[in-house]
């Protein structure tokens, strides 16, 4: 069983990592695969209540791979831990089949309560570099959590979530309509600056037109004969 799991992990890396050249190379040189191999043994000891040995193996694996998977975590088949450095996976985490986990990911808990406190990932979930999924909730199949996102709530299947806190931006690959934000962003500021510039230009044009109109009016008045001027003044009165 453990050997089959290891073989599926190696195959997953060969299939999904474009940089992988051969299964032998993957087996010998990929630290994500090594971490999972160590974990398969540690998890066996954990299941048989030999917690010290289980923890010892997991710490050894952490020392060599920089990937920390608690021996209690339930890892599915065909998982790709790419690069892997800085990955932390908590005790009550469940990771489904064919998931991809990049470097710097934390599948962690919030608070100090015992019991189920870590996330459960469905199948084919991708967790981008540096993303954190914190708390005991489910992430549906085929979800993608963007690099550096912090996910604190459950996700339905086929959702792409980005940002801090992570929010859904796509469902089934279709972008969701954007909400109008009250925050003034750089984009808003640039548009405002453009409008102010337009208004200044229009104002300048109007000022020029007004002064040339006044000049013309003054010139007409000086050109007019004294009789015409007195007639005009009489009309005004
Ligand atoms: C989320 C991700 C998968 C992109 O998915 P996608 O379906 O191609 O989505 P898009 O690129 O169309 O992005 C959708 C929106 O999310 C935003 N977005 C994408 N990735 C983001 C991220 N990491 N953080 C914040 N916002 C992000 C985009 O800017 C876009 O917003 P907009 O519509 O306002 O422009 C990708 O950005 C990602 O983070 N992948 C992880 C890859 C990784 O960790 N690689 C490590 C290799 S070593």
From TrEMBL:
GO terms for cellular component: cytoplasm. The keyword Acyltransferase applies. Keywords: Acyltransferase, Amino-acid biosynthesis, Cysteine biosynthesis, Cytoplasm, Repeat, Transferase. Residues 226-237 have a biased composition (Basic and acidic residues). Residues 3-36 form the Serine acetyltransferase N-terminal domain. InterPro entries: Hexapep, LbH_SAT, Ser_AcTrfase_N, Ser_AcTrfase_N_sf, Ser_O-AcTrfase, Serine_acetyltransferase, Trimer_LpxA-like_sf. It is found in: Cytoplasm. Pathway: Amino-acid biosynthesis; L-cysteine biosynthesis; L-cysteine from L-serine: step 1/2. SUPFAM superfamilies: Trimeric LpxA-like enzymes. One of its GO terms (molecular function) is serine O-acetyltransferase activity. It catalyses: L-serine + acetyl-CoA = O-acetyl-L-serine + CoA. Its main location: cytoplasm. One of its GO terms (biological process) is cysteine biosynthetic process from serine. The keyword Methyltransferase does not apply. Its EC number is 2.3.1.30. Residues 212-237 are annotated as: Disordered. Pfam families: Hexapep, Hexapep_2, SATase_N. Belongs to the transferase hexapeptide repeat family. NCBIfam families: cysE, EPS_EpsC. This is Serine acetyltransferase. It comes from Lacrimispora saccharolytica (strain ATCC 35040 / DSM 2544 / NRCC 2533 / WM1).
């Amino acid at each position: 069983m453990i050997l089959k799991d290891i073989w599926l992990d190696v195959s997953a890396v060969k299939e999904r990592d474009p940089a992988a050249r051969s299964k032998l190379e993957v087996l010998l040189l990929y630290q994500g695969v090594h971490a999972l191999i160590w974990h398969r043994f540690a998890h066996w000891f954990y299941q048989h209540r030999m917690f010290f040995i289980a923890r010892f193996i997991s710490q050894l694996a952490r020392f060599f791979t920089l990937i920390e998977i608690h021996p209690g975590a339930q890892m599915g088949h065909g998982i790709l831990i790419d690069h892997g450095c800085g990955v932390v996976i908590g005790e009550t985490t469940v990771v489904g089949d064919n998931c991809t986990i990049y470097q710097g990911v934390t599948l962690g808990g919030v608070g100090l309560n015992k019991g189920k406190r870590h996330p459960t990932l469905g199948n084919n979930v991708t967790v981008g570099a540096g993303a954190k999924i914190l708390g005991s909730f489910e992430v549906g199949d085929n979800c993608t959590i963007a690099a550096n996102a912090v996910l604190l709530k459950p996700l339905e299947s086929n959702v792409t979530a980005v940002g801090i806190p992570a929010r859904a931006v796509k469902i089934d690959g279709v972008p969701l309509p954007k909400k109008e934000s009250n925050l003034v962003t750089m984009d808003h500021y640039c548009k405002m600056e453009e409008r102010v510039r337009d208004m200044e230009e229009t104002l300048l044009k109007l000022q020029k037109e007004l002064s040339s109109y006044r000049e013309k009016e003054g010139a007409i008045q000086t050109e007019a004969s004294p009789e015409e001027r007195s007639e005009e003044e009489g009309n005004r009165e």
